[in-house]
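Researcher: Here's a chain I'd like modeled. Treat it as a single chain, no partners, no ligands.
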Amino acid sequence: MTFGTPRGREALSLSIAFTTLATVFTIIRIYTRIFLVKQMGADDWAIIVALAFSWAFFGLFIGEVKYLMGEHYKEIPPDILVKQMKCFWATIPLYQASLLTTKASILLQYKRVFSTPRMRFACWCLIGFLAAYGSWTFISAWVTCVPVSKFWHEEQHGYCLDKKALWFSNSAIHIFTDILILVFPMPSLKNLQLPRRQRYALMAVFALGSFVLITSILRLKSLMVISNSSDPTYDNPGAAKWSAIECNVAIICACLPGIRAFISKLLPRFLSSYKSKSNTRTRTQRSHVTHFSNFHSSIADRQSKFHMQSVSHGPEGGDYKASGFEEGTSNKIKVTTIVSQESVSNDASSVRQLL
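Model: Modeled as a single isolated chain. Structure tokens:
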């Protein structure tokens, strides 16, 4: 007996591919955090939870295909149709849970990497919004119809929310939060005291999150098809396929910034060459860390003038030497000290670990 329908199997094959990729990237990330970086954060635990939701979604996706998703509505036996619709009903909150948990993981990563109070506050605000919105969308997905069984028994008496309005409002909020998450770190990255090439490379890594935004937008077309369809079981594979892709692409993008140490171990020559160039620029930028100038001292009838200049004493400390000595006469004591200091941002040192 053939498993499912051609349309269902095609959608399932893409779900298998992207779920596998998301799993591989998550394993690499967790391996990196445990064995190379030796530090697990809340963002790492969140991505594990997101992957678990994605796998639960995938299991129900298999159920939908098994129960003839992709077949015309009228050609599916009633008992099989009920089973397919139950699987479809259960995938909706799991899709939402996976996507929202992934976004929370990304924001927790931002909070860990960027130490500025403003960035941390912004992250907590958006996490709070996602928690509130997630609670609503999770509950509304489970109780789209009252009683719940009306979702798979349309002839039953009861009430259902407007599915089209519900699905598109959820998609709009996801796209909006995708944009916020994408642009959130850019001002902080732009202002980091890093070599230009390293800073742009870092911005490019974080900008890979735009792929999630692209998949969210592409999913809208399939969502429009099924929301207006008179044959939902036949038209559902497109929406199911793009939902699986969106969930797993989000997980992959969330993992990319955290696997730098693994890539460094895998491709040591490439990254060591890149790092040596970056470190050269960093050392150049760090020269003249502390400058003391115009130091004048006059005691009794003698005036001494020292010019303090910087010398290399350490990568971050204040370094100086005295040169130039002048004598004169004066009845005053005059001391003038002008200090100019440059420091490397804590954000730079934290973010540098990602490259």
